[in-house]
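Model: You mentioned two targets. I'll fold them one after the other.
Researcher: Yes, keep them separate.
Model: Target one:
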Amino acid sequence: MRVAAIDLDLEAPGLGSFLGLAPTSVGVIDHVLSHLATGEVGEVRPLPVDGYESLWCVPAGAMGRGYLEKLARLDFLSGLTPGSASPVEEALGALLQAVAHEVSPDVILLDGRAGLHDMGGLALHRLAHADILVARASEQAREGLALVLDAIRRMRPDPSDRDLRIVQTMVPLPGEQEPGKTMLSDWRAKMYDLCAETIYQGLSDAPSLDDKVAHYPLALGYHDALTRTDRVQSVPDAVLADFETLADFVAPVRDGEED
């Protein structure tokens, strides 16, 4: 599978460095600002990731005082008119098209930051074909997911237009034993209740608790090794294996059929 990853966590960028890429002078924020000024994103060259022959990345941009100045110039509302797309949305759309042309990926991964913000809203509601919501089993996460799920229901009123998956992280290993098993069961029930109140609302054929659909989280275990590394190349293979299920979980959808 060919994957292009784009760092949309502009306020706290780091995807490029985590993938072991050398600092680059041009990144997402430069392409967005270029499009806002000229209507063009400029030359887009996704960077190949060492050790992963089918993975490319577009980092957020070069860190430094200049980056902060560029971030301050990013205005999500300037030029917005009723019924029109946000200028930033148009810029990101052009960037996605340029990346698709350069790499021809099966999947474009939009890496957004945690929390509720403009860029996350664009990625979830306007740009992405599938929404992957990642959270720990906590009350803070539940409250945030409630807002996001309700927004998805309102922004995409047609249930067939929703392709949603939830990922539960930091699950104690092994997950099939206590306390992991209890945590999984409790969180699944909470996610079902949230979905019943939001995206399942009004459905005549609403899923049941045990149906492995939107509310049924994929569990990713807690690995201490991940807390001690700053690059994917140094993550042990045994740890990465736990994340292989994520590829199938977020399988690309083309022409209405899953690959």
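Model: Target two:
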Amino acid sequence: MLSRRQLLKTSLVLAPIVALPQIALAGEPETFAVDGIAIRGADPVAFFTQGGPVMGDAAHSYDWAGATWHFANAENRDMFAADPTAYAPQFGGYCAFAASKGALATSVPEAWTIYEGKLYLNFSVAVRQVWSEDIPGNIALAEANWPGILG
């Protein structure tokens, strides 16, 4: 049972997600990308090797899953190319919390979590905080919703 405070907090975090025109609708690409670039240009391997988002460089890019991925260096690009699913964010890089609610929303690299060896992104740091209150439960919901979200 949620307390009034938790309900208010959750509704304040969810309100911007629900109201945003950036919410993706059925038929969206399998990977969230801005101008064709995944993770807003952040290097997906760096989350694992450097402990957070590091901007990639177009000189070290790799096309996969309908988007161009940028990397800080050739070594990271090659690691990704060898096993993209090991480094790519879950749910196509869309907001993991929105996926748990059966919707798609954009994400930002700053709102990241590595949980059980997988990268998850969220719409904002505030949304990540709410998502983090029940990571296993939210992942289970998102995985159940995911097959049908893209349409």
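Researcher: Noted. Anything on target two?
Model: DSSP finds seven helices and six strands in the chain.
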